[in-house]
Design goal:
Helix content: 10-25%
Radius of gyration: 23 Å
Strand order of the largest sheet: 1-2-6-3
Mean pLDDT: 78
Number of helices: 2
Number of domains: 2
Largest sheet: 4 strands, antiparallel
Structural class: alpha+beta
Order of helices and strands: HEEHEEEE
C-alpha cells in the first residue's frame, strides 16, 4: 500500500488542478487524509479506483463542508513598533491597535481511500 503522500503525488500527476492537500492526523491511529477541491472529486476517485498501481476499490470515509464561499472577519489586537515624533524628536515605540483580518472560507471534501482487501474498518 502506498503512503498518503505517494497517493497525493499520483493524483496530482493524473488529475491536474485537483487541489489535493495532505491533512495530517496527529492522533494515535495516524490515519491521514487528503483534502481536495469538490469539482475534482469524481475525477479523483475514478482515478484511484481505475489506476492499476493503486486499485482502491473501497471508499471508507467521505466528509464535506458545504457552505458558499464567504468572507469572515476577525478582530484582533496587534502590537507593532512605530516611529513617532515627540517634541521634535523621532522615537520608536510600541503601539497596540485593533485590526480586522479577513479570510475566505472554501468548500472542501476530505476522504480516506483504502482497499477492501486490507480488512481495515
Amino acid at each position: 500500500m502506498k503512503t498518503v503522500e505517494e497517493i497525493k503525488a499520483a493524483i496530482e500527476a493524473a488529475v491536474p488542478g485537483a487541489g489535493v492537500e495532505f491533512v495530517r492526523n496527529p492522533g494515535p491511529a495516524a490515519e491521514h487524509s487528503l483534502r481536495l477541491a469538490p469539482a475534482s472529486a469524481v475525477a479523483v476517485v475514478t482515478f484511484l479506483r481505475d489506476d492499476a498501481d493503486l486499485a482502491l476499490d473501497f471508499l471508507s470515509n467521505v466528509s464535506g463542508v458545504d457552505w458558499p464561499d464567504k468572507e469572515i472577519a476577525e478582530k484582533v489586537k496587534v502590537t507593532r513598533t512605530v516611529t513617532k515624533t515627540v517634541d521634535g524628536v523621532e522615537q520608536q515605540m510600541e503601539e497596540t491597535v485593533d485590526e480586522t483580518r479577513r479570510a475566505v472560507l472554501k468548500r472542501f471534501i476530505t476522504f480516506i481511500p483504502s482497499r477492501r482487501s486490507t480488512g481495515r474498518w
